[in-house]
From TrEMBL:
Catalytic activity: dCMP + ATP = dCDP + ADP; CMP + ATP = CDP + ADP
Protein family (similarity comment): Belongs to the cytidylate kinase family. Type 1 subfamily.
Domain of life: Bacteria
Family matches, as SUPFAM superfamilies: P-loop containing nucleoside triphosphate hydrolases
Pfam families assigned to the protein according to its UniProt record, in alphabetical order: Cytidylate_kin
Keyword Cytoplasm: yes
EC number: 2.7.4.25
Protein's recorded name: Cytidylate kinase
Keyword list, A-Z: ATP-binding, Cytoplasm, Kinase, Nucleotide-binding, Transferase
Organism the protein comes from: Streptomyces yanii
Binding sites annotated in the UniProt record for ATP: 25-33
GO molecular function: kinase activity
Subcellular location: Cytoplasm
């Protein structure tokens, strides 16, 4: 018995403490690409919180919920079972056991997700899920979203807030959506950012202690290197 206790405390002395990294910012700033690469490089878990809000929105649309009706959305908020896989090399998301990775990226879900994510009951439920996933990450986790540094994980070891000009963000998004018009993409992106930044409950915002990185003139590789360096500094100081 005493051997087990001694072994456990020796392990606690040598094992590095889990590192928690929060990466927030508007659409197209590079959160997902950066977070996945940083997590993979440093052996951390990865959580895409936008995918969870998209998943709950997809479930509402599939189940006849009027997503403009706040009361209806609030009542249904705890019904779908959402499970996120946190391997940065192959992140997954299921809703009631069904793979939702493809359907949550449709234009319909993209245009409805801000309305659903603004409902406090939805945020409370998804925030609780995010905190329990982060608490279970043994080595550490990179969590990306809009309110991670301000609300979900205010005690994160490192907070990054990514920005980029609307033009750069629209060009990046347009590159992903085949056949999409740049002006329309930019308009839709600004509309979603405005809705996300102006909602009452945990809006998109930079935490006071976040490091802001403007990615407009940076390559993705430069952003990844910058964040990896910042995480390594935090780890060394722990
Ligand atoms: N610094 C960058 N320079 C050029 N393209 C980038 C950069 N960062 C990300 N991208 C590209 O822009 C698109 C959107 O990036 P993504 O990581 O999905 O952004 P977000 O998660 O913030 O919406 C992707 O195609 C990605 O490869
Ligand atoms: N922490 C988060 C993450 C996303 N969201 C919502 O989910 C939507 C989709 O997030 P996303 O990260 O998939 O968006 P993009 O990758 O398309 O920029 C956002 O527009 C927000 O409405 C949120 O409210 N809080």
């Amino acid at each position: 018995m005493s051997t087990t206790v001694e072994t456990a405390s020796a392990a606690a002395r040598t094992a590095p403490a889990a590192v928690i990294v929060a990466i927030d910012g508007p659409s197209g700033t590079g959160k997902s690409s950066t977070s996945k690469a940083v997590a993979a490089q440093l052996g951390l878990s990865y959580l895409d919180t936008g995918a969870q809000y998209r998943a709950i929105t997809w479930w509402m649309l599939n189940n006849g919920i009027d997503v403009q009706n706040v009361a209806e959305v609030a009542t249904a908020a705890d019904k779908p079972v959402i499970v996120s896989g946190t391997d940065p090399a192959a992140p997954t998301i299921t809703v009631d056991g069904e793979d939702a990775a493809g359907p949550i990226r449709t234009p319909e879900v993209t245009s409805r997700v801000s309305a659903v994510s603004a409902v406090p009951e939805v945020r409370a439920r998804i925030t609780e899920l995010q905190r329990s996933i982060a608490a279970g990450a043994e080595v550490g986790i990179v969590v990306e979203g809009r309110d991670i540094g301000t609300t979900v994980l205010p005690d994160a070891d490192l907070k990054i807030f990514l920005t980029a000009s609307p033009e750069a963000r629209a060009a990046r998004r347009s590159g992903e959506l085949k056949g999409s018009d740049l002006a329309t993409t930019k308009e839709a992106l600004i509309k979603r950012d405005t809705a996300d930044s102006s909602r009452k409950t945990s809006p998109l915002a930079k935490a006071d202690d976040a490091v802001e990185v403007d990615t407009t003139e940076l390559t993705l590789q430069q952003v990844i290197e910058c964040v990896v360096t910042l995480v390594e500094e935090k780890r060394a100081a722990k």
